Amino acid sequence: MAVIPGLFLLGFAIGGSDFLRSVLNRPGRVAIAGGIALIVEIVGFSVTDYTTRQINQWINAGLGLCMALTSVSSLSCCSCAPPPRRS
Q1: Whole-number Å distance between alpha carbons of 2 and 11
Q2: How far apart are CA 6 and CA 44, in angstroms?
Q3: Residues 64, 24: Cα–Cα separation, whole Å
Q4: Residue 83 carries which DSSP code?
């Protein structure tokens, strides 16, 4: 629960700066970040079991954030791609 206010503050800082526009102009960097998050997510879920993730909630929170980063980066990469040209 203590992570949520920090994430709100981080989102507000990113929204107020020009960071988001500069990142979305380079979709390759977003794809790399999403790929790294996907690798961390797969390794984290394969190394730990359900009881370990329930006992140590930081592992569970970190894997949840990696899942969120993977989904957001994949959606933003799909939205950055130009539509196909039809002849």
Answers
A1: 15
A2: 23
A3: 23
A4: P
